[in-house]
Structure formats: C-alpha cells, structure tokens
Amino acid sequence: MSDKEIIAPISTSGSFTNAVTGRSVKISVIGVGGCGGNIINSICLENLGIKTIALNTDSQAIKNSMADVAVVVGKKKTAGLGAGANIEVGEAAVRENMEEILDLVKGDDMVFIIAGMGGGTGTKGSSIIAEALKATETSVVSFATLPFFFEGQGRLKKAQYGVSQLKASSDALICVNNQKLISKLKGKNLGIKEGFRIIDKVLVSGIKTILRLISEEQDINVDFADIKTTLSKGGSVVIGEAEAFGDNRSSLVVESLFANELSGMGPIETAKAAILSISGPSDLGFEEAAAAADAIHRKMGGGEIEVIFGMNVCPEMKKGTMKAAVIAAGLEDGLVTEGVLSNALSYIHGVGRLSSGAE
After folding, report:
1. pTM for the full predicted model
2. Class of the CATH-defined domain 5-170
3. Cα–Cα distance between 74 and 139 in angstroms, integer?
4. What is the pLDDT of residues 35-59, one digit of tens each?
5. CATH code for the domain defined by 238-355
C-alpha cells in the first residue's frame, strides 16, 4: 500500500444548492486526530450529505472510520502507530500528506475542520490545514474541544496553544470546553458513551444549523454569501438554535436560546456580526417574528452589531411553534467563549425546547 492510505471511496458530493438562488455550494468536513475522527463518525450517522474526511496518524482508528475518505497521515514519520501525544510529530505527519489533503477538498467553497485540542495529531495538524486552505481562499470554519481536568495541566496548556493557533488560521472558531459541558450534566446519571455522544452532538448541531441556513428556501433569505461574510469577521463564534411552543412562543424561544445553562452565550454582546433566522408554521405572525428578532438583537447588545435577518414560514411545522437560529461571530475571547448550542441535549433529554402548555 502507498504512503497515502485511503480507505473507502468518496460516496457523497458535498454539494448543497440554495433553493432560492439556485447556487451550488461545495462543502466538506475534515476530522483531524482521534477526537476529530470520532465526531466525523457522528456526522456520518446523521446523513447530512456533506463529504466527510478523517485524518489520523493511528492506522487502527482509520480502519474503524465511517468517513467517505479516511487517510493515515505521516506514515513515514509514525508508521501508522500514532503521534504519541507529541504535537510536533503530529504537525510533521500532516505536512507529509498536505498535498493529498488539499486535493481532497479542491474547489470547495467551505471546509469545516474538527479537532480535539491537547493530543498529538489534531492540536497543531488542524491549524496548518486551516492555514493552507485559507491560502486558497477557501472559507474555513473550525471546531475545537478542550480537554477534561483529569487529563492534566500539561494537556490543557497544549490545548490552549492549539486553540490559539487554530483561531489565527481560521475564518471562525467554535470552541467547546468538555469539562464545562459535562459539569453542567451532573446528576443526570449519564453513561460514558452517552456523555461523549452529547459532546459530539454539540458540534454536529453547529454544522447542521449552518447547512440548513445555506440550503433551505426562506421568505427572507439567508444565503451562503451572508454566512461567509458573517463568519469572516474572525474571532470566536457562537451558534445557537432553539424551538418553543405556545401562545407566548416569541418570548419563550428567546428564553430557550439564551437562558439554557448550556448555551455558553453570555459574552455574545461582544460579537461583531450575526445571522438571525426566525422560522414558524403558517400561523406565525410578522409581529411575533419581529418581537423575537428584536429581543434577540437586544440580547446581543444591539447598537453596532451587524445583523443579517432571515425569516421562513414552514407549513410543515406544527402550529404554535417557533424556531430561532443565531450565528454570532467575532467574539473576543476564544479560550473562554464556548460555542455550545442551547439545544445540545435535545437529542437525548429534550432540553432546549420550551412550551407554555400541553402540546
């Protein structure tokens, strides 16, 4: 087998067409290292229609990958045995296969990069891929996770370094603090696999929100150019999506979006730009949508923040519901701000969706 080991053919085009503009947008997602590869597997289970690529120095992890393309990087450097938590080895391994990696996403409009910070392969490997892609004028949106406390201060320091490098190399960064997220779930008696699944779902949800806004038809449309412009403000990003039901759904959806303890949206008022989308069934009134949008705008500090607004009437949605989605970019502190979604637990425990009465 050659130095570039690829397992599984590309089975997904990764192309999304906006229902209003008709423009086709090519998008891929790259998972770098063990954590990135695990999240890629979660994305594959969601059948998002996005091209998935897994990169790892560990050949055993690659054999277990569900990605459309899975590559053992740095076989000359590591012989497929991993980077041994050494970020310099991980960087060298990714550089060894950089030409092949860029070929896999050639012509893409946007690439998502996902990596866990603190390990050998993803910590620095993710940022040098992001840097190379930005040089080709590809829009790069990165997702990173910070380690648990029990993994030690040494790993945390490496993780903080990795986040700073990835933030500087990407158009936008969503950073999830594993320890903070899991600490908020205390008392829920989660199994080990369930806990890790929630972390994966948080990141997958962010990607799903972006893809939905790019592809769906809206009465007041948000398109790829709007999202790219917003994310290009740099800094850290928060993505939130929430749904509410009831007579006062406009206030409930705002409460759900911001009040959930997992939302991580406290410093959102430092954002430079935002996408704000309101969706509802045929009984959604303009005043209700405007009231929700106004309340969310005020929560984001109002004033100078540049907001691109979208609205969509979806007849298939249940009457009495309202959904709000926010992508806020340019937040100031990437090591403190976690882009944790307010509906992070909705897949498992139903959190992040409020109701004023029986449905």
Report:
1. 0.84
2. alpha beta
3. 25
4. 999 999 999 999 888 999 999 999 9
5. 3.40.50.1440
